[in-house]
Amino acid sequence: MNWSWLKKLFGHEEQVVLALSGGGARGLAHIGVLKELDRVGLKPGLVTGTSIGAVVGALYCLHGGAEKLEQVAHDLVHSELFAKFDLDEMLEDEDEHHDSFEEFGTRVRKIYTLSKMIRRESVVERGLMEDVMKELYGDATFDQLEIPFAAVATDLISGEDITLRTGFLATAVQASASIPGVFPPVRFDGYALVDGGITRNVPIPEPGESLNSKVIVVDVMRGLYDEGPFKYGLDILARTDWITQIHLNRFFLDRADLVIVPDVRNVHWADFKRLNELVLAGREALLDKLDEVKETFE
């Protein structure tokens, strides 16, 4: 991903880049962070986002602040349109490791979900994601943003992460948030774009880039929250893939000037119903590092 355009954006003036990571529903904690930044009067010079970080970051930059974010999120999560995603079938049963009828039901639900991926390109049918993005951003373009913003997606064709900062906001955010297998790829300009978390869940500049900026990361990636048991091959494959993602995440986090980590690691990526709890976690995480944040902005 080429970040050289940031040099033109910032010039010789030092600015703060706020990088919002991916993490599904856990990314609702970004709202709490942004609301608290507004409260203390701090504005980043640029916001970058991956996946849910792009969803929240784009809204923040479009409205020029966090005032409306929580209400917009609440209305969307409780809407009939969002219910059509049927994300509840993705949730894991906390007690699924026990031998019980509930475990059987959980396994059947997972098999049914996987069968959708075999029969079509994604669990959620094409068109629904576009409707949600249209609801959030309308026909807004990057040129209309109050605060500069960039979304990160992954190109299935080249295997590279792509920085999106022109055109329609809805298209860019949809591409950045299209979880493979759950949502269909976004195809345009020769790309087949999926969730940016595949290659760059922490959307910060490349190592070695000479930028006149400081980077604050809000990291909501899930940790290794349990110890198994890993009774099925799919569980083992998922675990090993997640370990790879965690190590990749650490690689980019090491290049941030400051990392804020809301206490949301044990929240499932599809559990959007915990909005209030997640927003509060983001606010508390910012408050815990408020002195460091202020120093970064100075």
Low-confidence parts: 94-109
Terminal-residue CA separation: 28 Å
The count of helical stretches stands at 12
- Sum up the overall morphology in one term: globular
Strand portion? 5-15%
Helix content: 40-55%
Given helix and strand content, the structural type is alpha/beta
The total beta strand count reads 8
Task: Please give a structural write-up.
It is a single chain. The protein is 42% helix and 13% strand. It is an alpha/beta fold. Strands 1, 2, 3, 4, 5, 6, 7 and 8 form an 8-stranded mixed sheet that branches. Helix 2 (29-39) packs across helix 11 (275-288), helix 3 runs antiparallel to helix 8 and helix 7 (128-137) packs across helix 8 (169-176). The radius of gyration is 19 Å and the shape is globular. It starts with a helix and ends with a helix.
Structure in a nutshell:
This protein is of the alpha/beta class and 298 residues long. The chain is 42% helix and 13% strand. Strand 7 (213-218), helix 10 and strand 8 form a beta-alpha-beta unit.
